[in-house]
Amino acid sequence: MNRRLWWKLCATLVLGMLALFWLISHLTWETEEAMSFIAESHQRTLRSYGAQAEALYNAGNEQALSEWLRSVQEQENTWAAVIQSDLTPIAGSTFSQRFTEGFGLGRDVSWKIHLYFAENPTMDLPFSDGRTHFVIQLPERMRPGNYWSPSRLLLQVVLPFAVLLLVCLLLYRHLMHPLRRLELATRRFSEGDYSARVGADLGARKDELAGLARAFDGMAERTQQLIEHQRQRLSDMSHELRTPLTRIEMAVSLAEQQQGDQLLLERIRGECNGMRQLVEDALTLSWLENESPVLRDESLDLTELVDSIVDDARFEYPEHKLNVQLPASARLSNSSHRALGQAIENVVRNALDHTPRGGSVQVSLVERSGVWLLSVADCGAGVPGDMLERIFQPFFRLSGGSNEGRSGFGLGLALARRQVQATGGSLSASNGAQGGLVIEMRLPRGGLQT
Length: 450
Prior knowledge:
It catalyses: ATP + protein L-histidine = ADP + protein N-phospho-L-histidine. Its EC number is 2.7.13.3. Keywords: Kinase, Membrane, Phosphoprotein, Transferase, Transmembrane, Transmembrane helix, Two-component regulatory system. This is histidine kinase. This protein is of the alpha+beta class and 450 residues long. Among the domains are: 107 residues, Beta-Lactamase (2-Layer Sandwich); 54 residues; 150 residues, Histidine kinase-like ATPase, C-terminal domain (Heat Shock Protein 90), CATH 3.30.565. It starts with a helix and ends in a 6-residue tail after the last strand. A 5-stranded mixed β-sheet has the order 5-7-8-10-9. About 2% of the residues have low confidence. The relative contact order is 0.07. Helix content is 53%, strand content 13%.
């Protein structure tokens, strides 16, 4: 299995952590070293104290030397003294020149001062005679490393945080770049751009994410082929069905002219019209589902549209009653006259088909909160509550309960819902309080429902 991404992440994290630890250690040591020496100005002050003490000592005025030492201790809030060192070797031992030259009762002002010691060290400024020394405990104001604590916090907390944040950002960008490309391609594909691919955007990348991109491209290629084949099959089916239907209709027309069995001929013509309508509805439904078109380029008067559909329905269903409540005008923008008209016609026909002979269908149009609510209620048997959504599925049929032997909803309601959705509205069903099915169509006046 290809584990390039695994090795990339491991190498980045391991080598990055090693480099970070070394950098922190090195910078900490360098910073501590730089902060461990007394400032030059303070060194000059201490040497000046040593020179003044030596001058007073050489003058032989111990009283003046004592008062001066007292003033230095008060001024610097520390301890200071002038001390003689009389070293006497015994048992025949001798001092080496290095020991004699390097001997001191404290630390030289140029030496390193360890920052971790709690007490300030004693500084030694020897006189020229080599055996007298001015010693002083380093005053607090002269102690180096005043910024060591914040510097150590900066080096051991802030610096690692910043470096790790940078590493995380780089890893995030490295991982998210192909995922973002994949997301964009998936969104384009879902919106109907079946040519969307990812592999070309990733260049020569060959890790697991590149494999995912190749898998997506393969899936997209296969899906595009299936959709194109489906479209071609639908087109072929439409052509093949229209041809025999046309021949049948021509034969029926000839038979009618020759005074054949009129009842049989009418039955054949009705079946032909039903087949033709089925083909047209199936093609329209397939187009709406596959292409997801947005049909919002017209403005219309909903009252006029519903009124014309009701007039046609009254002519075709003279044995039914249609009770209509419409406003004087119902302007609707960003919609489609054809799609909406077919949807309303399907809903009204469905209600009439499932209303017993002599029954009534209620059609009402009202405005509620900027939305036109078109309600069509029949007085049929209704629909079980758990099937109210299923009646909008293509070719879904209920058994029994229909008028004149009809047994279901076919494509009508499925097509109507998708047409209404394409215009920005919605379609829902419920059972009426007095029985029967109520179809409600919500159509925003602006053509887009939020």
